[in-house]
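Supplementary Note 3. Input sequence used for the single-chain structure prediction.
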Amino acid sequence: MSRGELVGGGPVARGATTGGVDAGDGEGNPSDGWEYRPVQLPGDVSRMTAAVRLAIQAEFGGWELSRVRLYPGGVRKVWLRRRRRPSSLMAEPTI
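The predicted structure, written as discrete structure tokens, is reproduced below.
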């Protein structure tokens, strides 16, 4: 991984939280209509650079900020979320 690179995979389905309420840790109830994507930003990334990178993901991926946690050393763990896309939008296979 290069210096300052965004770390994060694709969208992940999360386990249910108590009472179906978002616990504030980015792990919302999967039936709440949201999908979440965890992203980790290294400590050497400036706040402005992090904001620009997250804005690009929001603009082109439809993501919005759900939660940010700042850890010692400056590492930021960010959870992005977006509305689940209905499965009816996917084309049905034809035979």
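Helices lie at 47-61. The longest strand covers residues 34-41.
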